[in-house]
Amino acid sequence: MRASSNLDLVARADLDAETKSSLFDVFKVGSKMLEHPTTRETLRLAGASVKAIAGCSVSAVYVTAEGRLIRYSGKANHRLDLLVEARAGTNGVLENGGPWRYALFFRETGKVRGAFVLQAAAEPSGDEMFLLNALAEPTGAALATAELLTRERRQARELRLLYEAQSGSNRTMAATIVRLNAHQAIRDSIVAAAGTGNGEVEIVEALSAITRRSVVLQDSFGNERAFTGVRGATSPSRMLVPDIQVSPAVLLSAEWRSTVIRSHRETLGVIGIFDPDDIRSEDDRFAVEYASAIIAVELAHHRNVAEVEIRLGRDLADDLVAGAGIVDTLARAEALHFDLSGSQRVVLISWEYPTPSGVDIGAAVRHELAAMRVPALISRRPDAMLAIVVDGHDLSDLHERLSVVMASTRGTIGVGGSATSEDLAHSFSEASRALHIRAESRRPYGMSNHDDLGLLRILDTSGDGVQLERYVSEWLGALVEYDRDHHSEMVRTLGAYLESGGNYDRTADALIIHRSTLRYRLSRIRELSGRDLTDPDSRLNLHVAIRAQAALRDNLR
């Protein structure tokens, strides 16, 4: 509450003795208030009447402004203001234990119009309190009338000013009507286009006709959904890319003015209009905004339908790797247009989270497999994405494609072996094994196919491959170190020798060296490794170590 006037409202003159404690005289005062009601005069009469009725002084006066009580007069007292506010428009004693102080509120049609804080040495009698409360009613009515008259006078002044500016307003109104009619025509055209069987394409064509410019619609991954060119214009490349560090989307084209399409803060796509000089009219901008709102509804609907299919596909994928009944799964796959009659593979994809791009890994996997034309059922596991794909498709660049979308190469993919729908649980196990081997290797990011793991299928690569590397080092360490220091080929020579079954001629031919050179190398191998190449156990362990080293080097790329 704040003071708005220093007016002392407590009248010094007493009413005549006959008016004291007279209800009739209270009504007469109320009539006087309503003759020419002003806030100042009303409060002056009320203050004089309060003193005449009960001998009270008025220590604070409040009036209502903008729906709340503010101090009108009286010495500033923040604590008193809080006590009055706490009464919430209900008459009553403000506090006990001191001088009698009473909040008297003035109401009209249930609304508080003002208030007095009355103060006296002793509480007034019952009759006096009755008269004080009776006085509050005409005072509230007079304050409300004064406020109404003040508002009417203000409105009269405003109307006069409005009348004086009417000619200019009429021109503005006419222009507004023209603009509204133009906008209505735009809305009608776009709504009519949306009502056709091919809504997105028709809306883009309608928008191009309205703006006389080339218009393109792309989804959130930059795939073109519709394009209408003007004067031989060509469709732009991807116009936005997610970027959580800058904004929900970063626009990439300078000549194409882009409007991002969103639904509940989710980016669904983008509308681009060709305007290199940025000279679109207000109507053009309105048309783009309205079209984007309509297309948002279309895309959201498609998204909802897709989400239902995704959920059904996810459930089916989970059941297949769990070994569900073949009859049930075949029927459900057919409903999703997924062919389970041939062979499939299980693919597991694990990626860092969160990714720099902010793109959901599930959406990225679904999008990239679709772009590669690989039919898939996709599910989200606690630690990886699961995809059941139709066998026979090349997945070799899947990791690279996902790395671009996720703006990160820190992902691991494991591919299981080919299997029928009845045996996908086995392919799932193989994919898990391939993923684990890759993740625990020295190069954990990339893709490993179970079919290509060779010896690593049965070797333990847990603990970051430490045990396997120790095994290789134990049997080949001296030869590897010698090759590194002398740029020789002792390990390669030993491998060729063991692959040929110990045959000198075949080994020399494979290495394209003379038999004497081979004898020298094998002699050095025996000296460096301390192994007897005629011992079956030594030959086996050396051969396994060479195979393991090759698998670690070549298969985990």
Distance between the first and last residues' Cα: 75 Å
What CATH calls the topology of the largest domain is Beta-Lactamase
CATH superfamily of the largest domain: GAF domain
Proper CATH architecture of the largest domain: 2-Layer Sandwich
Instruction: Please state how the strands of the largest beta sheet are arranged side by side.
Output: 2-1-5-4-3
Beta-strand fraction estimate: 15-25%
Overall outline: elongated
- Share of helix, binned: 40-55%
Q: Can you tell me the residue ranges where pLDDT is under 50 for at least 5 consecutive residues?
A: 1-21, 243-251
Specify Rg, calculated over alpha carbons: 44 Å
CATH class of the largest domain: Alpha Beta
Summarize the structure.
With 557 residues, the protein is of the alpha+beta class. It has helices at residues 23-35, 39-54, 78-86, 126-164, 166-194, 199-211, 282-322, 326-335, 361-371, 398-406, 424-439, 466-486, 490-499, 504-511, 515-529, 536-554, and strands spanning 57-65, 68-73, 92-93, 100-108, 111-120, 215-219, 224-228, 240-243, 247-251, 256-263, 266-274, 344-351, 376-380, 385-390, 411-415, 446-449. The chain is elongated and about 140 Å long.
Describe the structure.
- This protein has 557 residues and is an alpha+beta fold.
- It folds into four domains: 23-153, GAF domain (Beta-Lactamase, 2-Layer Sandwich); 199-305, Beta-Lactamase (2-Layer Sandwich); 323-452, Reverse transcriptase/Diguanylate cyclase domain (Alpha-Beta Plaits); 465-553, Arc Repressor Mutant, subunit A (Orthogonal Bundle), CATH 1.10.10.
- The chain has 16 helices and 16 strands.
- The strands form four sheets. The chain has a five-stranded antiparallel β-sheet with strand order 2-1-5-4-3, with helices on both faces.
- Strand 1 and strand 2 form a beta hairpin.
- Residues 1-21 and 243-251 have low confidence and may be disordered.
- Residues 491-548 form the PucR C-terminal helix-turn-helix domain.
- This is PucR family transcriptional regulator.
- Residues 328-437 form the CdaR GGDEF-like domain.
- InterPro entries: CdaR-like_regulators, CdaR_GGDEF, PucR_C-HTH_dom, PucR_C-HTH_sf.
